[in-house]
Design brief:
Largest sheet: 8 strands, mixed
Bound molecules: coenzyme A
Shape: globular
Number of strands: 8
CATH architecture: 3-Layer(aba) Sandwich
Order of helices and strands: EHHEEEHEHEEE
CATH class: Alpha Beta
Length: about 180
Amino acid sequence: MTTIRLAEAADLDALIALRIESETWLHAAGIQQWVDRERGIRNLREGVAAGVTYVVDDGGTVAATLTLNGPDRDFWTDEDDPENALYLYKFIIGPAHRGTGLGDALLDWACAEAEGRGKALLRLDCWRENKSLQRYYLDRGFHHVRTVQVAGRGSGALFERPADLRTTTRSLTSAVTDEC
Ligand SMILES: CC(C)(COP(=O)(O)OP(=O)(O)OC[C@H]1O[C@@H](n2cnc3c(N)ncnc32)[C@H](O)[C@@H]1OP(=O)(O)O)[C@@H](O)C(=O)NCCC(=O)NCCS
């Protein structure tokens, strides 16, 4: 059974493995994204500790992860009404589950989370130079808001999607019972 639940400390090794596999895959494809491994792992640790990182558990294996949190104020300004959105970070699907439709189901699930928290939008920032990844989000109902350049950040292409949008009928069993 495929279930989504909050990540626990015991999931950290699997989450770090997902991140490293993903970096290796991207770099082998010549994609310059996620070049700072230490920062990536630190972010995952902080997300788990803060209770904002989720894992997709497929029969006891961590198949994917995503983090839902507040706005990154390097990118989103007061004019963006930043509290009216939920923000997607560290979205990773492991190799065995990529291209299976799990990504679409997870984006729908994140939108439902946003709606459930009274937010109108699901937002994300992604790598400025990565047009292929940006196409991925455009194809799934996201709109490009703008691209901003911040010193020391490779990310900065900003996207958003209405929280009430659904693109697939596939749903995930949620073991998330308490969003406090
Ligand atoms: C993004 C991701 C979660 C989507 O998973 P999915 O819904 O199963 O979709 P797929 O993995 O089949 O990817 C769809 C297409 O996007 C491409 N793609 C995915 N991530 C990409 C990336 N970071 N950069 C460039 N292209 C990417 C895939 O190569 C694929 O291209 P194709 O259709 O030409 O084969 C998954 O590909 C992943 O974990 N990517 C690496 C981590 C990442 O970039 N996360 C997003 C951070 S904002």
